[in-house]
């Protein structure tokens, strides 16, 4: 149903003037001149078809019609204020994050408890999605995306590099024998071999156009699943070392070659620019950037102290 309402500016001017008993004070409250308030109220009077104020030499007094209308308008404004206050309280207390599954499972989820302890007033909601979420249509405050950081209208902060290299479990390697060259991987079961990273990595390794599409293999739709299958000895997975640091350190996974693919991508924290001043967005941004910087420093230290591969 179409609403036939007078201009909101006129209603606001009327409500403030009736409450304060002065066009001048109403103008001060609304950031307008006395003449602008008088003009808006005149428009409203023409709209309702009756005078709403008596213009006296030093004051304005609502007419009987003005008093009745002022009471109803004031009540409506109170309801609006309460509605927006409730909505703002709800939105400020809930932090909704969407993330690509790999980063969410392997890095973010294990650390969110620390963020929650530091910000106990925030209720954090983490969901995963491979697609790009639409901030205009979905109830999401911030997201973790993978790419180059060039998303119009969004603030973007790099967190971790996205690199890739083949990994498997020690048990799998023991069963299949040593892998002495990248080409030797082609005789082994590869997990999700149609993933573009396999072809990119083989190209970097100088292995010409291997046939990967037609071979029988296990296809998995996310890196956490591929890593879990590799840990279970099901084959060789193309994984991001930055996300599997603990498994590599503990020896549960083996990085087969020093060669690491890098397309210049990162995991990014992104959010609409209009939200950048919200306290919950600032809190998430500041915490994530510190955690990511600390983690990257630990990775660099681990790589510098790692013994050379034989």
TrEMBL record:
Keyword presence, DNA-binding: yes
CDD domains (UniProt xref): PBP2_GcdR_TrpI_HvrB_AmpR_like
HTH lysR-type domain mapped to chain residues: 6-63
One Pfam assignment: HTH_1
InterPro entries (alphabetical): LysR-type_TF_proteobact-type, LysR_HTH_N, LysR_subst-bd, WH-like_DNA-bd_sf, WH_DNA-bd_sf
Keyword set, alphabetical order: DNA-binding, Transcription, Transcription regulation
PANTHER family: HTH-TYPE TRANSCRIPTIONAL REGULATOR, HTH-TYPE TRANSCRIPTIONAL REGULATOR TRPI
Family designation: Belongs to the LysR transcriptional regulatory family.
Listed name of the protein: Transcriptional regulator GcvA
Organism: Benzoatithermus flavus
Lineage of the species this protein comes from: Bacteria, Pseudomonadati, Pseudomonadota, Alphaproteobacteria, Geminicoccales
GN (gene name): gcvA
């Amino acid at each position: 149903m179409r609403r036939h309402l007078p201009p909101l500016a006129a209603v606001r001017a009327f409500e403030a003037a009736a409450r304060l008993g002065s066009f001048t004070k109403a103008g001060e409250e609304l950031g307008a001149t006395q003449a602008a308030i008088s003009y808006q109220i005149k428009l409203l009077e023409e709209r309702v078809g009756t005078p709403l104020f008596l213009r006296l030499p030093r004051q304005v007094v609502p007419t009987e019609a003005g008093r009745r209308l002022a009471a109803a308008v004031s009540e409506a404004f109170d309801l609006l204020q309460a509605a927006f206050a409730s909505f703002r309280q709800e939105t400020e207390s809930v932090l909704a994050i969407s993330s690509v599954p790999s980063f969410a499972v392997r890095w973010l989820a294990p650390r969110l408890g620390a963020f929650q302890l530091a910000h106990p007033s925030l209720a954090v909601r983490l969901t995963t999605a491979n697609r790009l979420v639409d901030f205009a249509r979905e109830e999401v405050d911030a997201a973790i995306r993978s790419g180059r950081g060039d998303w119009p209208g969004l603030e973007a902060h790099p967190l971790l590099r996205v690199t890739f290299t083949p990994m498997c479990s020690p048990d799998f390697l023991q069963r299949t024998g040593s892998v002495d060259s990248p080409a030797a991987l082609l005789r082994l079961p590869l997990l999700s071999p149609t993933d573009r990273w396999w072809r990119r990595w083989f190209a970097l390794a100088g292995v010409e156009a291997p046939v990967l599409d037609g071979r029988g293999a296990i296809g998995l739709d996310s890196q956490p699943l591929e890593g879990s299958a590799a840990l279970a000895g099901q084959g060789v997975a193309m994984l991001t070392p930055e996300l599997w640091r603990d498994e590599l350190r503990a020896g549960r996974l083996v990085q087969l070659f020093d060669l690491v693919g890098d397309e210049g991508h990162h995991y990014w924290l992104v959010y609409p620019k209009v939200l950048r001043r919200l306290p919950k967005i600032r809190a998430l941004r500041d915490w994530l950037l510190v955690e990511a910087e600390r983690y990257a420093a630990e990775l660099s230290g681990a790589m510098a102290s790692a013994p050379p591969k034989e």
